[in-house]
UniProtKB/TrEMBL annotation, chain A:
<dbReference type="InterPro" id="IPR036856">
    <property type="entry name" value="Ald_Oxase/Xan_DH_a/b_sf"/>
</dbReference>
<dbReference type="Pfam" id="PF00111">
    <property type="entry name" value="Fer2"/>
</dbReference>
<dbReference type="InterPro" id="IPR046867">
    <property type="entry name" value="AldOxase/xan_DH_MoCoBD2"/>
</dbReference>
<keyword id="KW-0408">Iron</keyword>
<keyword id="KW-0560">Oxidoreductase</keyword>
<dbReference type="InterPro" id="IPR016208">
    <property type="entry name" value="Ald_Oxase/xanthine_DH-like"/>
</dbReference>
<feature type="domain" description="2Fe-2S ferredoxin-type">
    <location>
        <begin position="4"/>
        <end position="80"/>
    </location>
</feature>
<dbReference type="InterPro" id="IPR012675">
    <property type="entry name" value="Beta-grasp_dom_sf"/>
</dbReference>
<dbReference type="Pfam" id="PF02738">
    <property type="entry name" value="MoCoBD_1"/>
</dbReference>
TrEMBL record, chain B:
<keyword id="KW-0560">Oxidoreductase</keyword>
<keyword id="KW-0285">Flavoprotein</keyword>
<keyword id="KW-0274">FAD</keyword>
<dbReference type="GO" id="GO:0071949">
    <property type="term" value="F:FAD binding"/>
</dbReference>
<keyword id="KW-0472">Membrane</keyword>
<dbReference type="InterPro" id="IPR005107">
    <property type="entry name" value="CO_DH_flav_C"/>
</dbReference>
<dbReference type="InterPro" id="IPR002346">
    <property type="entry name" value="Mopterin_DH_FAD-bd"/>
</dbReference>
<dbReference type="InterPro" id="IPR016169">
    <property type="entry name" value="FAD-bd_PCMH_sub2"/>
</dbReference>
<feature type="transmembrane region" description="Helical">
    <location>
        <begin position="189"/>
        <end position="209"/>
    </location>
</feature>
Amino acid sequence: MTAQAILLTVNGTAQAVTAPPATRLSTGLRDHLGLTGTKVGCDAGDCGACTVLLDGAQACACLVPLAQATGRAVTTVEGLAATPMGAALQRAFLHHGAAQCGICSPGMLMAASELLAAVPRPDEAQAMAALGGVLCRCTGYRKILEAVLEAHAFLGDAPLGNWPAPPPPAAGCAVGARIPRADGVAKVTGADLFGADTAPADALWLRAVRSPTPRARFSFGDWAPVLARHPGLVQVLTAADVPGRNGFGIYPDIKDQPVFSTGELRYRGDVVCALVGDRATLDAIHLDDLPIAFENLPPVTLAGGDALHDRWPDNLLTTGRVVSGDAEAALAASPHVAGIEIETGFVEHAYIEPEAGWAQRVGDRMEVFACTQAPWMDLEEVAGVLGIPHSDVRIIPSACGGGFGGKLDVSIQPMLAIAAWLLRRPVRAVLPRSESMASSTKRHPARITARAGCDAAGRLTGFAFEGAFDTGAYASWGPTVAGRVPVHCMGPYRVPAVAARARAIFTNNPPSGAFRGFGVPQAAIAQEALWDRLADAAGLDRLEFRVLNALRAGDATATGQVLEHSVGLVACLEALRPRWLALREAAAAANARGGPRRHGVGIACMWYGIGNTGMSNPSTMRVTLGPEGLVFHNGAVDIGQGSTTVLLQIAADALGLPVDAFRLVLGDTDLTADAGKTSASRQTFVSGRAAQSAGAALRDAILLRANAGPEARLDWRGGTLLVDGRPLALDAPLEGIGRFDPPTVPLDADGQGIPYATYGFAAQIAALLVDTELGTVRLQRIVAAHDVGRAINPTLVEGQIHGGIAQGIGLALTEEYLPGRTENLHDYLIPTIGDVPAIECILVEDREPLGPHGAKGIGEPALVPTAPAIFSAIRDATGIEVTRIPALPHRLLEAMPR
Amino acid sequence: MTAYRRPTRLTEALALLAEAPLPPLLLAGGTDIYPARAAAEAWMRPVDRPLLDLSALPELAGIEDRGDYHRIGARVTWAALREAALPPWFDALRQAASQVGGAQVQNRATLVGNLCNASPAADGVPPLLALDAEVELAGLGGVRRLPLGGFIRGNRQTALAPGEIATAVLVPKAAPDAAARFEKLGARAYLVISIVMVAAVVEAAVGRITRARIAVGACSPVAQRLPGLEAALAGQPLAQAAAVPAAAHLAALAPIDDVRATAAYRRQAALVLLRRALTLPAEAHAA
């Protein structure tokens, strides 16, 4: 059967699509009509990113055969603004901060538009039912819900982006203002270009051939018959084709992960080789047709096995330690001691955008366009595998559809670069969802044993922690996790004696890497459970126990660091106290009524060091004034968290001009300076400080040029800079460069030093009910108090808190990645809109003198306390101490007292 | 390229089916076929079964009242069921309709497709088993009916013969005030495969149960009726129905351990859900 023209109406325009009739509608829209606003997250109806309207009814375009759209009206995000309510909804999304990374936004908008067409002022239950089929991994859904419920208030005819937001804040007033995202319009119109949204028309496609089993030896037979049978198969790439080093990895001295394996495959998803050719050919090739012989080997687990890598004969990648005082002696002398053992599983990042991008060779330079959190690290990896100088690689980050740590490691970039380098043709790749999940890094599963003691008055005396972290097949960020955990595992408390050890151990599991919190969320579960037990033993309220022991300014940590400033934990707890008392009273009243559903209220705290652990992590920002206008060259990748907006607010105030004066140049390594990776909650603090310096440096240059004093007023009028009302004549461009590297001192063998220049602090309350007959948990409310130093943009800060809480909920209750079994988004369960309760955010602003305007970070702190607070509440409701995580219903029910 | 046909008459569809050299997959909403393809393609195991698209067949459309039963055509989606004005004994089925997947899936997926997919966790099966539904099967030789319990033969197995298309599900009428309830247990709010679900259809007179029909899903390869429990409920006061289910009534179930739950949990949860389902019809009758 040949492809035939299928006639349909798309956004009011008649279209003919010549494609096979069984083609997915999503493919027809994106590849044939160029309407890439419709995103593809799973091709299975699990994520809803591709939601469009089919004759007004929402449908996953990935599940609709093109032929079934014949004669029907399809509405995509590109056509949403054609109706007043559609445009209002987009404005509401901007105003409420409902789009973060933006990959789910088109699907959310279309799902909501179906509802709003019928019910312009829906209630929350109606909105949830309408949006229940679209997954979002960034926002925690609450701001999306607000935007949908309030969309009717944004009806009007002003253009998108100008309304209803008031004019941008005046010069010097951007910091602290709830301005809409600087990159928001493209996210709510579908115009933003993610990794899969663009590539040259003549690009070849690349598919990796991956190991179907956790551990195997393999060998190749004769490829000639396969190549002869498939003329569209242009090249098979193997380890022998790697021009440079066949290895990559986060640490400069650990490049242990091969681009293409040599002889042994170390996890399900490890790369055997790659096929390059036209898409139809690659789609039709069957693994069994390839001349690859696999011989399965017994997989290595945490329980032990053969050495995975010659370099680590005992499979121990690294050990992190912090020792201060004599913890064992302190515990032996303590009137109250509690102990716990917990086990957590793999957690998948589940960004809705699978890894995608393309590469091309330009002369003897390599250019890679792909989704990433770390363009400069990608640059180094690409240069390494090609064996070319760093200066010959250019990384152009696409819009990044969620990262959460999972896009810090390279994925497709080395393979694409090798293919494009050798073939001298552009080459692109888009990972299918299951391949993304199988191949990418995960949160480390942890087995933790911890003990803690306190005196009769409830003051902590000692803490002992031993953690084994399954680091999987390759090192990735394992050393970072093993380093961070011992520093953080006693939590933000005064603990006189600490003995903490974390080991990262190789297994034949997926590489465990970076995931929002780097091991700290797992450790916090053990630590906070112990505090609840000790509080009970000492006869103290759980919140008051934490107030009693909380770190305060002037205290020394277990690493010997004296915290001079910005230790806002007590303020967080005090802000929570009225809500704590009220929620506990409400729970007690509800429980007094009896029944199988028991109410509980829990609390947990956290601290989080901002930036790299005891090592340099600088950022450089640049602002220029010249023929191209006022340009902010910002190399920090915004993966949805909002750094593009926040850094602009900071730079604008430092310069003294409003944010709309700036043109933005983002991410491209040829055009921006190295801002460091988007991880460790560091961009607001580190790059923010650099942006502040850059803005101030340009201001100084301008004032010098104008011979004006420091109080001079700058204005931006129609592309011209006015200094105290007079146009500034420029005979050469001016620039301001700012650089910041937070001061730290490396940790010694006992973990003593100054690992971080500053820390975020937080406390969260969870109120919930447990169905004691079914083991299910229904969250009712989360109250989150976070010391962020200064909220540069409160809407974005709240968005980070909401999103972190949603991921914490998943970690606590539903998410468990099992290789080969839950590598899709219907067996791996991230929270839906119905799983995130109302969230109250309390922003505590205990200024950090080193930070821009006193700001610290929020990305990871938001997630850390949620799961422990939920477990604290479960224990409050039922007496059960959760030790096997996630607390799936059958696990909770098994633990229920009978 | 996948061979694909979209006939516009049932006879044409049956003829295409009869002459197909390779048996085609029957496609309606596509919500099972496309995900299965994606999973296979991700691991380089593409499938190239031809597709026979049933979505243009008028004989498969609509819900009709045919006197002593309702006929639900094979093209009827969950959303159509959810929104339909149907007698109260359909309440369990309509509750299931509002809990399958998300709104996008409900708008596209069909009830009959759910039956033909024959997943042990198919949400449509327990409510229909509890209504003694039959499946209407059309072939070139004519139309036959099979009780739903006989149509689904096992995990992903049906009695659909080569050359046949399931064209409708037929639901006999219950007593006018029959109450029906569906209880679904999943690990999250939307887009969730059931860990366990139960359906109950209860008929009563003067406060006593005259007939109770109970089915449990996701606790055996095919959802099952519980005749022992049904017998025990007959004649009981409605107000005490919830106290009747006991572990022994679930003896015939054969739940498994999987990523969603353990077998033991499923057994326990089924009992709890049964008690809850049987509380609510009592309330409905009282109202």
